[in-house]
Amino acid sequence: MTVDLDADDLPTPRLALPERIQLARQLTAGVGNWQMQRGTHLLGFCQDGYWLRRFAHDPALAEALEPADRPTSVNWDRVVELLNTPGALEDDDLEPGTMGPHLALLEIATSLAVGRPVDLCRAARILPAADWRDILARMENAALHV
To answer: Which residues make beta-bridge pairs with 65?
Structure first.
């Protein structure tokens, strides 16, 4: 039996993965520490991967990924340093007053990755409800592997 296929009948090629997912996969492939993987995944899969994309494209924050030429992990020590100097994390492309939820996500991811204390009450007040539920679910998943 032969089947004649018309080019129009062939399946369409798969769409390319969004940059945020590609970055999250690239940055966790060689990381053996489960908690650091969870922190990196949180940055890649929440808020449209804002922080991973920003670390990859903002020269002032490039040291947050290592090595610089082809990043394979998040430099969590550098992220902690950045969190200790929040002015370094300001984003002129965002509307004034909208940085809070982004910072809360970064703080939670850093807490998952390296145990930096985070004020979850403040984060719950700042984050939109959908983001908060998403982050809580990912934190619960990370807690299963501690």
So the answer is: 74
What are 95-146's pLDDT values in tens digits? 877 789 999 999 999 999 999 999 999 999 999 999 999 999 988 887 776 6
For residue range 127-138, list pLDDT tens digits in order.
Answer: 999 999 999 998
The single-letter DSSP state of residue 92 is T
Bridge partners of 73?
A: 66
Report the C-alpha gap between 127 and 133 in whole angstroms: 9
Among 71, 131, 77, which Cα is nearest to 101's? 131
Q: How far apart are CA 5 and CA 10, in angstroms?
A: 7
Q: Residue 36 phi/psi, 5° resolution?
A: -65, -35
